[in-house]
Task: structure prediction
Amino acid sequence: MSDAGNAFAFQTGTWRVRHRKLSGRLVGATDWVEFDGTCSAWELLGGAGNVDDHFLNDPAGPYHAATFRRTDPDTGLWWIWWIDPRYPSLEPPVSGRFVDGVGTFHADDQLGGRPIKVRFIWSEIDSNSARWEQAFSGDGGETWETNWIMAFERTA
Result:
């Protein structure tokens, strides 16, 4: 998988998604909440962009969300925005690239009013499955807490 456009071509199609997320973030939680969802994804801009549309059957209340991704053709960096109707504003994008088949993306954000670092990792990608995980760091990136994992399984 390269840094260039079409890096998210693997995601095009429809997916069953198994979600696993911590019950709390950066609070020492160890219990995980698991639920199912779906995702449909497609490329835009000749592969220089990608959109996915999610349904998350979260036990706390089901909802829809989406991701918009765009690559910078000059740097090869991808910018990723998560759009979630539970929050009124667009969250800061994560930015990064794929190296040797693993995509790593970072951003600075806030959680409960305090600064944090965010990391997304795309891995274990093949024609029928992929893994996405999110981690937060409250200490400037010294340590990371993985708080959400999505296991994607392609549907027919």
The chain has no helices and ten strands. The CA atoms of residues 78 and 125 lie 17 Å apart.
